TrEMBL record:
Protein name: Carboxymuconolactone decarboxylase-like domain-containing protein
Lineage: Eukaryota, Fungi, Dikarya, Ascomycota, Pezizomycotina
Organism: Recurvomyces mirabilis
Alphabetized InterPro entries for the sequence: 4CMD/NDH-1_regulator, AhpD-like, CMD-like
GO molecular function, a single term: peroxiredoxin activity
Domain of life where this protein originates: Eukaryota
Length: 229
């Protein structure tokens, strides 16, 4: 094969991996994180960012054989052992988005600490708790659980005598707004129980109820969102 043809084939293969990788990276870590990571790319750092997206996300995370959920738990264990706190925080968030429960995340970190050492384990727990608390306060934790249970393009309706709530995985922002408005009208615990029975254990619902902090910004956004219904 001529050199030009070979170069074209390599570039095409890399583009395929990159396109697959950036899609998976956004789905696992969240679009906001990806935007932050790529916002300050320079000519010097671009090859490393491209390599991470192509090889890590496009080459590894797209492979069959084990689920994204299991890959998340593997990453939590490995990053704990390596002491990579920044990356661990990213993958704690990704683990929730991939459907891992608080118990599974906790036990993975605990198991890793038995082999990697107590200092590594304690540091990992601090990182994980900070990330989970942030997700709960911003309302992202419950939304991530719902999206992991109900894939995009699916539709589910929850009902009882007082309410009917429809969630569409294709519109995350609308889903978040409806959920927040909904939480202001009924007791939080009742609503959370109705929504997450299929995705989580009651200890997690207790965690959500104990840690949720309803911000002024959320209130203002919710006022605008009441146009939805």
């Amino acid at each position: 094969m001529p050199d030009d043809d070979q170069s074209s084939a390599v570039l095409a293969a890399r583009k395929t991996l990159y396109d697959a990788g950036i899609k998976i990276r956004r789905e696992v870590t969240g679009a906001e994180h990806v935007e932050r990571s790529t916002a300050n790319i320079t000519d010097f750092s671009k090859p490393m960012q491209d390599f991470a997206t192509e090889a890590g996300w496009g080459g590894l995370w797209s492979r069959p054989g084990i689920s994204r959920r299991d890959r998340s738990l593997l990453n939590l264990a490995m990053l704990t052992a390596m002491g990579k706190d920044m990356e661990l925080g990213v993958h704690v968030r990704g683990a929730v988005r991939n459907g891992c429960s608080l118990v599974e995340i906790r036990e993975t970190l605990l198991n890793a600490s038995g082999y990697a050492g107590l200092p590594a384990g304690l540091a990992a727990f601090r990182v994980a708790e900070r990330v989970l608390k942030d997700m709960v306060e911003k309302g992202h934790y419950l939304i991530a659980l719902l999206e992991s249970e109900y894939p995009r393009n699916s539709h589910e309706t929850f009902s009882n005598s007082k309410f009917t709530l429809a969630l569409w995985g294709t519109n995350t922002y609308a889903c978040a707004i409806v959920l927040k408005v909904f939480m202001t009208k009924w007791k939080l615990r009742t609503v959370v129980k109705a929504l997450v029975t299929k995705t989580t254990v009651m200890s997690e619902v207790d965690y959500l109820c104990a840690n949720r902090n309803y911000h002024r910004a959320d209130q203002m956004r919710d006022q605008d969102s009441r146009k939805l219904g």
